[in-house]
Design brief:
The protein is built from six helices and eight strands. It is globular. It is 42% helix and 18% strand. The chain has 180 residues and is α/β, with parallel strands linked by helices.
Length: 180
């Protein structure tokens, strides 16, 4: 939304270069909130939150991935296998929200892991937990890779999310999906 896929998403507005209309609108809203509430705002730029629910009727790639694995034993992607994204777990998300609110912080924060995880590796970990399935890439869509910088969040909250913890959570999700 905010920047080139080869560069981490900056935390300062002056460094952001929105890629589309959606990104431009988000940036305008951020600037307006900062003007209206200069000393009373928390703006969060969220990464992809990993949820383990498959019965939610949303057209989000992650729900599609879990439903497809459960119903067809296949995880199918419509983009390149080298695509990567930034993911966070629900526990990390809630800990960050709690700490931000309880410590009375203000500002703009990238609530993210700061790690780039290839979609292929994400699928491998889920299948590892599920103990079945195969991965198929069609490569139809343009590369939608991104990851974000979370230096400010780490410095402010003293909390991190490791890539190994994300992978453990993905295995857990696969196990939970198997027994759903």
């Amino acid at each position: 939304v905010y920047s080139n896929t080869n560069i981490k998403c900056h935390e300062k507005c002056k460094n952001l270069k929105p890629l589309n209309f959606y990104g431009k609108n988000k940036l305008i809203i951020e600037k307006n909130v900062k003007k209206i509430l200069p000393k009373r705002h928390i703006i969060l730029r969220l990464s992809n939150i990993l949820y383990d629910k498959i019965n939610i009727k949303k057209d989000v790639f992650y729900y599609q991935l879990l439903k497809s694995l459960k119903k067809k034993n296949i995880i199918q992607f419509d983009f390149d296998c080298k695509t990567y994204k930034d993911f966070i777990t629900p526990l990390y998300f809630s800990k960050c929200i709690d700490k931000l609110i309880l410590s009375n912080n203000i500002g703009t924060f990238n609530l993210c892991s700061g790690h780039s995880l290839k979609i292929y590796d994400l699928a491998v970990q889920i299948i590892k937990g599920y103990q079945a399935g195969k991965i198929v890439f069609s490569g139809i869509k343009e590369n939608e890779s991104f990851f974000m910088c979370n230096k400010k969040l780490k410095k402010t909250l003293h909390i991190t999310l490791s890539l190994s913890n994300i992978k453990k959570y993905l295995i857990y999700m696969g196990k939970k999906l198997k027994h759903a």
